[in-house]
Input
Amino acid sequence: MKCCLAYGVAGDNMEITVSASDNINGTLILPMYEGVEEIPEECERGLPQGMKSQINRVLSDGDFKAKKKATMSLIGGEDGKVILAGLGKSDGVSVHDFRKSGAAVFASIKKVHGNDFTVRFTEAGVAHMAAFAEGMMLRNYSYDEYKMKDDEETEGEKQVRLTCSEKESEELSALVNKYRGITKGVHLSRDLGNCPPNDMYPEVFADMAWEWAKDFDNVDVTIINYEQAIKAGMGGLVAVGKGSSRKPCMVIFEMNKNVKGRCPVLVGKGITFDTGGISLKPGANMDEMKYDMGGSATVFGTMEALAQTGHEGKVVAITCMAENMPAANATRPGDVIKGLSGKTIEVLNTDAEGRLVLSDGLWKAGEYDPEFIIDFATLTGACVVALGHEATGLWSNDDDFRTEIHEAGNAVDELAWPMPLLPAFEKEMTDSKIADTRNLGAGRWGGANTAAAFLKQFVPNRNYDKDGEQITWAHMDIAGTYWGAKTNSMVKNGATGIHVRTIHHLITNR
Ligand code: BES
Ligand code: ZN
Ligand code: ZN
Output
C-alpha cells in the first residue's frame, strides 16, 4: 500500500508555544488594527529602537493600513524582521478575523523570515489569540506527497511563540493545544481527499482507518468487506461498487463504545472515484471526482479531531466506501435494487450513486441508538448551482437541530445554509412505477432537495419501530465546499477539510 498521507508532515513541522516573556525570537509578527498610526504602548516591550521606528514609519505614512487579511513584511532593518498583520477595525473584531489573519500571515512566510517567530498581540483576548494560532496551524498544509523534493527544499521546523501575560498563558496554552488536535483532523480529511484515486480506494481507506485506530485505546474500527456486505444485504453499497475491481466496503468507527446511552452517529459518502457508472459523466473535470469521498473523509477527520482532543463521549461513524465504475458487471439504469432497509430502489441514473450507498449507511446507523444522525456527502451538482462554493447545503427532519448545526458552523466560520425538506420532494422520489423509491427526480429542478428527500426515506425510526418516531437526522451536501472553495482563507488549494471543526464544535459543546 502506498502511503498518500502527508498530514504527519504538514501538521508536525510547526511548534506553537505560549510565553509570558518579553524576548523576541526571530521574526516578529504584529497583528494590528486599522487606524493605528504608531505601535501601541503595550506592544513595545523588548522592541529594539530601530525596529520600532521602522514600524512606526510605515504606520504613520499609511503604507500599512491593517486591512483584514493584509500582511506586510519588513525585512531590511538592522534590528530584525517583522511581519505586520491586518485585523481590520478593532470595533466588532471577531475570532474569525484573528483566525484569517493568522492564516494570511502563515501564507506570507518566506524563507527569509527564518524558522523562529514571535507573535505580539495588542488588545486581544485569549480566544482571539488562540484563533490566530489556529489560523496559522490550519494554513500550514500542503500536499506534496507525489513531488520530488531535494534536500535544500526541505524546510526546518518552525517555532512560533505567542506572547501574552502571565495570567493568560495557561488558558491560551490549553486552547492552542485543543486547536492543534482539531487541525490534525482537518488535515487528515484533506489528505484523504487530495490522495489520487489510483491510491485511494475503499480497501486503502479501510486499512488506514484500521491502522489509525491502533493509536487509540478508545477507538474500534470494524470493516464490513464486500462479501460480508452482500451477505448483510447492503444492496445500495454493492450496486454502486460491484462494477469496480476495487470492491466496496463499509468502515465503522466506534469511539468510547462502553459509555452508556445514545450517541451521535456520523455517516459519510465515500465514493473514491465517481465516473457516473453506466450513466457516464462527461470528460471535463472528471478528475475532480476523486473528491467524491469527501463525506467519508470529513467523518474520519472528525474522529481524529475528537480522539486528539480527548473526547470522552461515545461517537459512532459509518463510512460507505465504493468506486463507481462502468463495467460489464456494473449496475444499469433501470435496475431495481433492495438494500438494508428492505425498500426497493429503481436506479434511473447510475450517477446518482451517493444516495444509494448512503441508504445503507443511514439504515445501519439505527443499530447504534443514535442521539442524532448526520450524513456528509458531495452529493449533487445541483447544490453547487444553488449555493456555489460558499456554503454547504443543510437539511434536517428537525428544525431546532438544523439551527443548532447552522450555529455550530457559524461559531467556527464554516457556513451551512438551511435548505427545505419538503413533502413534495419526498413524493417525487417515491412515485416510481415499479419500486418503492427512485434515485432520480422527475425533472432536473431542485436536484439537491430531491436527493435530500430520497435520503430521508432511509433514516430509520427509533429501534426500527414501524410506527415509531424517525431519528433526528441532518444531511450536509458538501459538493461545493469540500473542494474548489477559493474564498476559504484556511486553504490554498485542493480538499478543504470542511466541517471537521463544525462537528467537533457541535459534539463537544452539547
Ligand atoms: N458526485 C456527484 C455530485 C457532484 C457533481 C459533486 C459535481 C460535485 C461536483 C454525484 O454523484 C452526482 O453525479 N450527482 C448527479 C445526480 C443526478 C444524476 C441526479 C448530479 O449532481 O448531476
Ligand atoms: Zn455520481
Ligand atoms: Zn458522486
